[in-house]
């Protein structure tokens, strides 16, 4: 489908801020020394702090892009398709890689190969991203998906009743 007029401008703007945010996330990920202040020199930490401060906007912008592109999903496809796409694109990869990370963490990183956690603790740690801490955004993203569903459904019902 070819976009025209205002839709084309919105698409170009969203593509542009997606690109800038993606590059910013790369800067944040390679700036790991920011989180190791006692172990680096003060000059390195100051430059890392500047990088962290400049590019900190990236993840909140990704959340905003999600809202901007999905709030009107009902104009493009039904709720069943919306749920199917969100499950396929986020929940399945999150669950798979979190379980993989849990196994790696418990078997390799603990150096003893003995799982000392009970099932409840493992599930809690998976949901709270203990094993792969950089997955902190997945639970937040899933909440945003749910809120978009609720808001768009309420908006849709309101528009129908008017």
Question: Helix and strand layout, with pairings?
Answer:
Elements: H1 5-30, H2 42-55, H3 58-70, H4 79-109, H5 119-127, H6 137-161
In words, what does this structure look like?
The protein is mainly alpha-helical and 162 residues long. The chain has six helices and no strands. The protein has helices at 5-30, 42-55, 58-70, 79-109, 119-127, 137-161. The longest helix is centred in the middle third of the chain and has 31 residues, at 79-109. The radius of gyration is 20 Å and the shape is flat. The chain starts with a helix and ends with a helix. 4% of the residues are buried.
Query: Outline, from the CA principal axes?
Result: flat
Mean pLDDT level: 84
Count of alpha/pi helices: 6
Main pleated-sheet profile: none
Helix content: over 70%
Strand content: under 5%
Low-pLDDT segments: none
User: What is the distance, rounded to the nearest whole angstrom, between the alpha carbons of the first and last residues?
Assistant: 30 Å
Radius of gyration: 20 Å
The counted number of beta strands is 0
* Element pattern in H and E: HHHHHH
Quickly give the structural class.
Answer: mainly alpha
